[in-house]
Amino acid sequence: MSEGALLSVRELRTTFRRDGAEPLTAVDGVSFDVRRGQALAIVGESGSGKSVTMRSVMGILPRTARITGGQALFAGRDLLAIGDKELRKVRGREIAMVFQSAMEAMNPTLTLERQLTEHLLWHGICTKAEARKRAVRALGDVGIPDPEKRIRTYPFQLSGGMRQRAMIAMAMVTEPALLIADEPTTAVDVTVQRQILDLLAELKNRGTGVIMITHDLGVARYFCDDAVVMYAGRVVERAPMGRLLDDPRHPYSVGLLGSGVEVGGRDLPLRPIPGSPPDLSHRPEGCPFHPRCAQAELPRCATEQEILTIGPGRDAACWKVAVDA
Amino acid sequence: MGLAGYLGKRAVRLVLSLIAVSMLTFTLLQLAPGNFADLQRVNSGATNFGGVGTESMVGELESRYGADVPVWKQYLIFMKGAVVWDFGPSYKYASRNVQDIIAEAFPVSATLALLAVLLALLIAVPIGVFAALRQNTKTDHATMFAVTLGHALPSYLTAAFMILLFSATLKLLPSGGWNGPEDLILPVLALSLGPAAVLARYVRSSMLETLREEYVTAALAKGGPRRTVIIRHALRNSLIPLVTVAGPLLAALMTGTVFVEALLRIPGLGLYFANAAASRDMPLLMGTAMFFALILMVTNLVVDLIYGLLDPRIRTVGGGSHDGH
């Protein structure tokens, strides 16, 4: 664990039970750190295990999932070991979560007031009257006009952008130290996207640690300091954001950058990565990316994967990186 | 459109439906072989089915029951009374007006129906939730197997079995009649088991659907105690659609249950309705049929109003205060 890390995840492994088959490994030895007031992007295609990683840490996995190894150190405690009762005190209070779509992540039949205050009461943070005041303030903080009036409405009565802000207010009302944002801009209009990102950047600047789960490097680069690139349940590259954009090392990161539209302002031709991400039940041996990798050297890439440190805060899970460097 | 306008529209539809029901019932009654006069003649022994009665007797019965009046006129005469809730005297129970029979028998059936549906809900909701929370486990399968059995068991069989058990063998309860509260127990039990099974299935599937909603996960991520989240976020929302099932169930039971009322000698509406149909008692059949239609439509209206009350998304449709999209 690096010094001063707010959350330090080490060798996390999560599997899913299946009927009549071996359990599926969705997260396979994932490690990363996030510091206070810093933003970490977890980048990968859908199915790469980025959401499962964070839901493992939060203890909100579906019933078929099981954490089979690893640690998640937060404020000196291993969240994976303290048990659900203790974890519940951390969840929503010290670590809060923002979801892809507020339309789905907010209960359609409860008012904003109910949804913004209930966890203040669950955690015994304050009285009901005080909770209401805090909720109004939280709504105002995320830029919702006339929060006194808005708090009495239902989520569906807000516009998409307002609703997404309200969800962020719901997460921030307990003043958590760490905010996990799971694709918070994927389901909103481009114009709203920018507002949401500005809002998250502002939270970061006020000292909240942010983990941003995204498939979009363009979104990640907006305010994230560090990046973790995931592929098929594994971390393939870890680097400061700027370094990753300028000089991606793992062939998958290179491909991901090449396939994104207008990343870092460079006008490169779009080059989609050939093939598609592996079905996790048939994960390739060795480096899971080797069947799609133009530089793969057989048989070595099909038998082993090596994590190499290639600089301060940088490593890549590709032995070829060392050869090339 | 305000609530008053909505109710007005529904009232017009209700009246039109009642007219349609009356026409249809009347036509079907005319098409059915035999009429009250014939059946009386046969039953009184004045003639047999193949034979011909004395002319004077046929004439007397025909004039008494209006068979000498053209059919369309019979209908109009009946409807003229029906508009002011006067269905005239029953043929079979000649000393009583149809509306008096309904006024006397309906409270009996309604009491049974309300208690039975209430009991059914009290049984079904916990069972449905219990099974849903243990989806695809042995407990779930066993519970749903028992529920299917309950569903397959007709109420008259349950009633007969309970008479045997509680009245004949254990001598705990009266085997029928309508004198005191103890007479309610057997029919309510017999009538509630089937609906309980239907509702339990419904609660289970509705609950499973709601439990998969992101807002349930989001509530857990806020640190909600599992039980609170299940009740406030999942159960509440899964019970809303239940209203649409419980309403018609209630209406069906309120209009009388022929078998259970016959078995337990309960003077409810079902018995009168069955007798009216069997004896071609036109006023009683028309009166009860129209009354059933009325009950059904009023119940549906009440269901829709309750639905709007429970689900804010429906409440504001039309009178909406949307500020976006």
UniProtKB/TrEMBL annotation, chain A:
Keyword entries, A-Z: ATP-binding, Cell membrane, Membrane, Nucleotide-binding, Transport
Protein name (record): Oligopeptide transport system ATP-binding protein
Residue span(s) of domain ABC transporter: 9-257
GO molecular function, one term: ATP binding
CDD domains linked to this entry: ABC_NikE_OppD_transporters
Localization (cell): Cell membrane
Pfam families, A to Z: ABC_tran, oligo_HPY
UniProtKB/TrEMBL annotation, chain B:
Coiled-coil region list: none
Regions that span the bilayer: 12-32, 112-133, 145-164, 184-203, 239-264, 284-307
Membrane topology: Multi-pass membrane protein
Entry keyword Cell membrane: yes
Pfam families tied to this protein: BPD_transp_1
Compartments, record wording: Cell membrane
Keyword terms: Cell membrane, Membrane, Transmembrane, Transmembrane helix, Transport
SUPFAM superfamilies the UniProt entry points to: MetI-like
Source species, domain of life: Bacteria
Domain ABC transmembrane type-1: 106-307
Family statement drawn from the similarity comment of this UniProt entry: Belongs to the binding-protein-dependent transport system permease family.
Name of this chain's protein: Peptide/nickel transport system permease protein
Annotated organism of origin: Kribbella pratensis
Organism lineage string: Bacteria, Bacillati, Actinomycetota, Actinomycetes, Propionibacteriales
